[in-house]
Write a structure and sequence with these properties.
Layout (H helix, E strand, L loop, with lengths): L5 H16 L6 H9 L8 H13 L6 H5 L7 H17 L10 H8 L9 E7 L5 E9 L9 H10 L4 E7 L9 H17 L2 E8 L4 E3 L7 H6 L7
Parallel strand pairs: 3-4
Antiparallel strand pairs: 1-2, 1-3, 4-5
Helix pairs in contact: 2-3
Length: 233
């Protein structure tokens, strides 16, 4: 009896879903399955796709290939195929050059991290017109804590010649209220930004069903100094 391959068992249903409903209908893992084509003797394609999605969630764009190559069974060909698809998507992604004038403008671009089980600290770099240059994963923490340093934030901002930044992170607990550490980190970044000439526009905390904005809540240092809500544009 002919042995059914991983591709024959899995890919037709994914392909049919894509053809019938469109690519936007598929889960991230299913999109990766379409990119990979097949798994290998070490790992079925659906398991490999799941591990790759986890690695992508934890990777800054510059480190995608390196992190994928750490996965058992993922060789250079598959790692580069995934990275190439991401780069093509990045070049055509709607968030690039998207204008940001309020907290609600940035949330759709980072909301996908709300479902992550670990804290992800993100940096959004913006040009002089407050249009998005790039969204970076700066650090990935434990269930309740993530560690960041201003040099990681502003180093990336300087490399991209950013005029301003927004930082974001998720709260896996589902409570979007900032912790004392969140407040301290935000104020430290704001002070460093003043020295560097790169303004911290906001710090957004995202959860599954809501988000918190330091600007909207008047919790930035400049809010307290001016006693007004500072608009981003």
């Amino acid at each position: 009896m002919k042995k059914i391959s991983n591709e024959e068992k899995i890919r037709p249903s994914v392909r049919e879903s894509a053809m019938e409903h469109g690519l936007s209908y598929l889960f991230d893992e299913e999109l990766v399955m379409l990119i990979l084509g097949t798994g290998n003797s070490q790992m079925p394609v659906e398991i490999m796709a799941d591990k790759i999605v986890d690695a992508l969630d934890d990777s800054d764009p510059a480190e995608v290939v390196k992190n994928l190559l750490k996965l058992k069974g993922v060789g250079q060909g598959k790692a580069l195929a995934v990275a190439a698809a991401l780069e093509l998507g990045r070049r055509r992604n709607s968030h690039l050059c998207a204008p940001i004038s309020s907290s609600s403008d940035i949330v759709p671009f980072v909301q996908n991290y709300a479902v992550c089980k670990k804290e992800h600290f993100l940096l959004v770099t913006l040009n002089g017109s407050h249009e998005i240059i790039q969204i970076h994963v700066i650090s990935v923490g434990t269930l309740n804590r993530t560690l960041i340093h201003p040099r990681e934030i502003f180093g990336a901002a300087i490399r991209e010649d950013a005029a301003a930044i927004i930082v974001c992170h998720n709260h896996p607990s589902g409570n979007c209220e900032p912790s004392e550490e969140d407040i301290q980190v935000t104020h430290n970044l704001e002070r460093v930004g003043e020295i560097m000439g790169i303004e911290l526009l906001d710090h957004i905390i995202v959860c599954r069903d809501s988000y918190f904005s330091f600007v909207d809540s008047k919790m930035l240092l400049r809010n307290k100094k001016k006693n007004v809500i500072v608009k981003m544009a």
